[in-house]
Model the fold of this input.
Amino acid sequence: MTDGVVVGEDGVARCPWAAGPGTMRDYHDTEWGVTVAGERGLFERLSLEGFQAGLSWSTILNKRDRFREVFHDFDVDRVAAMTDAELEGLMADTGIVRNRAKILATRTNARATVALREDGGLERLIDGFRPERDPEPVAPADVPAVTPESTALSKALRKRGFGFVGPTTMHALMEATGLVDTHLVGCHRRGIAR
Done:
């Protein structure tokens, strides 16, 4: 691991986790840290971050298309209406992460998202935890895994009935959706979300 950004064979400076060509670099260069607006987009990211807990993000990216298929393109109302039998059937689907608790939490979180609509919605709730300033990490070790804001977001979502929304997972969500910019100083993607 390096102490800072890595300049790839294409001459572009990136965060070290995205140094080589492939899925992770593509994600870094086109999605990670880009502001995600709207309920569906945030629900998808919240769901995928929950599935990622304890696994590598590349595993989730490689299964993302299938996740979208089985969870109705993360249409919140359709996921909220999924039956126990439908969810149980997903345990046999090798195209996704077959973790019963995470699968059930996806429906639970969809139902909690529907309930949030009467109180401003998921987007408003998550955006309310945007930090005042972004960190300025120079090396991967400078990037926090948990922040006061991600801890507070985790507590707020749990209070609303969400699952698989721990502080580390919520920090990852905040990074992925542009709520906080943790691209390393010198990375060509730094500052894109704000």
Q: What stands out?
A: Strands lie at 6-7, 13-14.
